[in-house]
Amino acid sequence: MSHKVNWGVLSTANIGWAKVIPAMQKAAHVNIVAVGSRDLSKAEAMAKDLGIARAYGSYEALLADPEIDAVYNPLPNHLHVPLTLAALEAGKHVLCEKPMALTAMEAGLLREATQHSGKLVSEAFMVRHHPQWQRARALVNSGVIGEVRAIQTFFSYFNTDPANVRNQADIGGGGLYDIGCYAITTARYIFGAEPERVIAMTENDPNFGTDRLTSGLADFGAGRHLTFTVSTQLVPYQRVQICGTKGRIEVQIPFNAPANGETRIFIDSGADLAGGGITSETLPACDQYTVQGEAFSRAVLGQVPLEYGLEDAILNMRIIDAFFRSTHSNHWEKP
């Protein structure tokens, strides 16, 4: 294998076309060589726009391309596992958009395929690659805010388009799947632990049937709690508070960090309620999709271990499953 990984893209999904693929093309070890779509004209349009050499009119044709080493799968949620399985069977590594599956059991179907193929699979939580999150975790581990006991996360946007996949319940739409997964992943990242039990409540859109407002509480044991609210039909906003016994860290733009702009985190000693104890750290511009693509490519090349693989994705899905069970049982559920 050369010093670059040859990538194929499954679908012309907007997140790939507008954000992920242009960012990955900036990575040193990434070479995007093909895009596949069920609509050849869309694949050709994306290939022309982004300078990609080949366009295919089906996913199967792309996966049959022997020059492709890895694929990026940004398809709707219900197609994540089927097309990841197909890619593994075709001998490709897979970077799959979140959530990895619709259930942990479905995600588990990928185990045998990864073992048989020997290929890598990773869930595309780009936030864990951004320096602002790595800095936040380093500050937590340094003890500067004491013992971390609580994380509060709010993440919302407004989308009432019935054609949008996020508003289609039968293919994995809704707030918990789409953005609640970020609250769960980042809490696991900061606590360095898994929740012992969770409870949630949702309010569903009467027409779409998707959860448009979900709030959850996760007990990570040892007096550590995650509380979050996510919504697909509220004012666009996002913020994370990491609270310890001696201070607080606030991540200003935790999830959609600007690719070409600085980011800031605030460290509050709690000296007074007016913010007199707040200092800020500014981190330089970083495209988290570029860093994610580079990290996965280097793992494919054997240069570094894969930090977040299939088992991590399955753990996250178990927690999402438990939150969904809780919305029906109205009780605490164990992942």
Question: How does this structure look, described?
Answer:
It is globular, with a radius of gyration of 20 Å. The strands form two sheets. It has an eight-stranded mixed sheet with strand order 8-9-10-7-11-12-13-14, covered by helices on one side. Helix 7 (175-191) packs across helix 9. It has nine helices and 14 strands. It starts with a strand and ends in a 6-residue tail after the last helix. With 335 residues, the chain is α/β, with parallel strands linked by helices. It has two domains: 5-125 and 290-308, Rossmann fold (3-Layer(aba) Sandwich); 131-285, Dihydrodipicolinate Reductase, domain 2 (2-Layer Sandwich).
Write the layout of secondary structure elements.
Blueprint: E1 5-10, H1 14-24, E2 30-36, H2 40-50, E3 54-56, H3 59-63, E4 70-73, H4 80-89, E5 93-96, H5 104-117, E6 121-123, H6 131-142, E7 148-158, H7 175-191, E8 197-204, E9 211-219, E10 225-231, E11 233-244, E12 248-251, E13 263-268, E14 278-283, H8 288-300, H9 310-329
Parallel strand pairs: 1-2, 1-4, 2-3, 4-5, 5-6, 7-10
Antiparallel strand pairs: 7-11, 8-9, 9-10, 11-12, 12-13, 13-14
Protein structure class: alpha/beta
CATH class of the largest domain: Alpha Beta
Please compute the radius of gyration using only Cα atoms: 20 Å
Separation, N- and C-terminal Cα atoms: 40 Å
* Outline: globular
Series of secondary-structure elements, N-terminal to C-terminal: EHEHEHEHEHEHEHEEEEEEEHH
DSSP strand (E) fraction?
25-35%
Tell me the helix content. 25-40%
By CATH, the superfamily of the largest domain comes out as Dihydrodipicolinate Reductase, domain 2
Count, helices: 9
Largest sheet: 8 strands, mixed
Please state the average pLDDT score.
Answer: 97
Instruction: Tell me the total number of β-strands.
Output: 14
Quaternary:
single chain
What is the CATH-assigned architecture of the largest domain? 2-Layer Sandwich
CATH topology of the largest domain: Dihydrodipicolinate Reductase, domain 2
Sheet with most strands: strand arrangement: 8-9-10-7-11-12-13-14
Write down the domain tally. 2
